[in-house]
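User: Hey, my collaborator sent me this sequence without any context and asked if I could get a structure. I don't really work with proteins. Can you help?
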Amino acid sequence: KLYTAQGCIGAEEYDNSHKGRYMDTITLLNLDKIENTRFCDMGSGSGWILKKMSKSNHLVAIDAVKFEHEYIKFYQANFDYDRFSHDIDEDLFDYIMCLETFEHLSNPYNFVFEMKQMLKPHGKLVVSIPDEDVQHNTYYPGLIYPVDNFLYFMQQMAFKLEKGWHQKTEFGHIWLSVFRNEPWGKHIMKFQK
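Assistant: No problem. I've predicted the 3D structure and written it out in structure-token form, which is a compact way to encode the shape of the chain:
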């Protein structure tokens, strides 16, 4: 169960309430056209987007909320504390996607570090975060508001921004980004340690 402003709802009910935005994301990123690719959805909910993708892909969902599906492999993880990259019995992924997950994290560094371990060199990381007009509660508002802070954090984690868009939703705007996984030597630090 998920706790929202509307009360406690199931993952499928949550995903269905966001169906328009999910369809826009599928269209914008051509996710329904991707084939024969290793693809992971972090914070997958009920797997709504993965279920719309081609069965030719190797599809993996990771979330705290478990679901079952015939061609999607599921792993359960706590993104804040688990070293989940060690528990995932998979080869590296071509794509990792996480939509509106960062605002729920108390340890975003762990989450990004673990995803980096699971993503191929130069693999794609697709991320969305709420924009300031959404006023979503978050542990670290300074991480995602304004979006430039988030983009800088991702550069510190050796991810290079390839594309970014503002998406309008019924709740406000979402910032959607595609990053490329770079080697650790390509990280950007304002103050070197």
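In plain terms: The chain is about 25% helix and 30% strand. You can pass these tokens on to your collaborator as they are.
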